[in-house]
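Quick one, tokens below. Sequence please?
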């Protein structure tokens, strides 16, 4: 074996390769453990449940193939909770959760009983997102299915409300203080993000894992699952970067479409007017938040917020 071939072989042994078939994330892997999940539940609900055996995980394992991904679904005290982790902003979460909760209820309820005279009782649904992307957001906010309706109404016939928590390091400190695993997870993610700015991704993830073990941050979990965590972290980061590229391509296409329509209509637009029109089109796609659009269109954030209203 030549020197270069030997070196390449050794590198392959040292560096875990991101398995593109991974459907898990580090977040889901952490909180698939019932004790950890119950701790997260207690932190969110300010409750004090101690019996993890009372928690029934009902995540639809094949739902990801149906386009209805959800990280964790569980039933506790006749309530059904959908927990999802997000690294990028997505305004379509309420609609996705609607499809997912329908599939959950279809699984839980015997179809034949729906035609009987007796009322079929179902667990109350709750929808939570844990966000740790790089786009700044509030510590907590809610989004509604009715935000996607063409016609605004004060009393929609169908509604679904999703609560999103910012779980980046430094946010929701009270929540983090009640769930140590969530706090340590946020520290791990912050380390990966920081090191990635200084070195290649695989080195950054390895360094973050090593430091966390040394500092007793998710230490037992990382020692036990080190190879899987490194591979999943690389995959997650690559996925986020690919989504950023896709969103940039969508933006460029929106600009091109806006300019083309302006010419066809025979309208001479000033620079700000063109940016405003493009911002409107991007808002209508529902794929960008106001801060992203303001930056991409070179407009003041308050102008984009006004357009949204």
């Amino acid at each position: 074996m030549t020197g270069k071939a030997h070196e390449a072989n050794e590198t392959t042994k040292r560096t875990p390769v991101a398995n593109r078939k991974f459907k898990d994330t580090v977040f889901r892997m952490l909180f698939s453990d019932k004790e950890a999940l119950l701790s997260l539940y207690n932190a969110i609900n300010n409750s004090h449940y101690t019996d993890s055996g009372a928690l029934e995980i009902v995540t639809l394992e094949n739902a990801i193939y149906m386009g209805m991904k959800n990280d964790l679904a569980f039933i506790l005290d006749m309530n059904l909770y959908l927990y999802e982790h997000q690294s990028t902003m997505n305004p379509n979460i309420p609609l996705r959760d609607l499809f997912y909760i329908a599939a959950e209820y279809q699984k839980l309820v015997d179809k034949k009983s729906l035609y009987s005279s007796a009322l079929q009782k179902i667990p109350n649904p709750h929808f939570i997102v844990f966000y740790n992307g790089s786009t700044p957001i509030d510590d907590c906010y809610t989004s509604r299915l009715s935000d996607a309706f063409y016609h605004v109404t004060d009393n929609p016939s169908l509604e679904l409300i999703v609560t999103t928590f910012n779980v980046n390091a430094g946010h929701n400190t009270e929540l983090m203080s009640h769930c140590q695993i969530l706090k340590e997870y946020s520290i791990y993610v912050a380390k990966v993000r920081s090191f990635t700015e200084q070195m290649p991704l695989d080195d950054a993830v390895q360094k973050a894992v090593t430091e966390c073990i040394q500092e007793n941050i998710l230490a037992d979990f990382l020692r036990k699952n080190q190879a899987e965590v490194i591979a999943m972290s690389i995959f997650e980061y690559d996925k986020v970067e690919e989504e950023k590229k896709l969103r940039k391509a969508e933006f460029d296409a929106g600009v091109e479409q806006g300019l083309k329509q302006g010419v066809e209509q025979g309208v001479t637009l000033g620079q700000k007017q063109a940016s405003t029109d493009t911002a409107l089109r991007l808002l209508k796609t529902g794929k960008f938040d106001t801060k992203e659009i303001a930056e991409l269109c070179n407009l003041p954030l308050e102008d984009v917020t006004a357009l949204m209203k």
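Strands lie at 56-57, 72-76, 79-86, 124-131, 140-144, 161-166. The first strand starts at residue 56 and ends at 57.
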